[in-house]
Specification:
By secondary structure, this protein is an all-alpha fold. The protein contains 7 helices and no strands. The protein is globular.
Length: 162
């Protein structure tokens, strides 16, 4: 298998893994601690690959796939992921060279922005306000960010994928 095909397979495989890991059921007390995996993986690829592979169209397709798999309002996650990828690509040149702790804070800000967008969409859809534990997920995602980033980078280096 040539390197270009392996690179594409790794890219698509990681996004499929993110979508499938979003579907893993957790017990009710642990549900607020579940990170938003598609956002974390798209952020990683947006920072590493930039406009070469990750764009708003890909974010929209991944979001629609997540909407269909999760059974939520169609376009909800697509809009949220498009907003997140747009911001990440806009500030990519700065975010890539931040130390890991600053990058983690930036990811936390992006994930909190994602929660605010979700709150707005669900409020307009007529749902009631979520409990306070609903805001835990962005902090868990930000805490996992350094480990996810280093793991994905290490796997890319081991597979010799550029």
């Amino acid at each position: 298998m040539n390197k270009q095909r392996a690179s594409l397979l790794w890219f698509v495989g990681s996004l499929v893994f993110a979508l499938l890991s979003m579907l893993v059921p957790l017990p009710a007390p642990l549900q607020p601690f579940k990170p938003y995996w598609p956002a974390l993986f798209l952020l990683y690829w947006a920072l590493e690959e930039g406009d070469a592979r990750v764009n708003l169209g890909l974010a929209f397709i991944v979001g629609l796939s997540a909407d269909l798999l999760d059974g939520v309002l169609l376009g909800e996650q697509a809009m949220r992921l498009c907003a997140m990828v747009f911001i990440a690509l806009r500030f990519r040149s700065r975010l890539r060279f931040f130390p890991m702790w600053q990058q983690t804070l930036a990811v936390l800000a992006l994930l909190l922005n994602d929660r605010v967008l979700l709150l707005i969409v669900r409020t307009f859809a007529g749902e009631s306000l979520p409990p306070a534990t609903w805001w835990i997920s962005p902090f868990v995602g930000a805490a996992l960010w350094p480990f996810l980033f280093l793991l994905m980078d290490d796997l890319r280096l081991r597979l010799r994928i550029q």
